[in-house]
Amino acid sequence: MIYKRNTLISLLMSLLFGACLFISITASATQLPQDDHQYEENLLDRIRNGFSLALPTNSKAIRKIETPFTRRPETLNRIIQNSERYLYYIVEEVERRGMPMEIALIPVIESSYDPLIKSNSNSTGLWQFIPETGKLLGLEQNVWHDDRRDIVASTEAALDYFQYLYKRFNNWMLAIAAYNIGEGTVGKALSKSAHKGRSSDFDHLNLPTEAKHYVYKLLAIKDIIANSNKYGVRLRQVPNRPYFEKIKLHDPIDISLVTRLANISEVEFTALNPAYNRYVIKVQNESRTLLLPRNKKEAFVKNLETFQDPRVSWQMYHVKKDESIREIAERYNTTVKQLKTINGIARHKNLTLGQKILVPQAIAEDMAVNDKKDNRLDKYASVHIVRKGDTLYDIARKYGTTVKKIKRWNSSDDNLSIGQKLVITKS
Question: Does domain 39-231 have CATH number 1.10.530.10?
Answer without folding.
Answer: yes
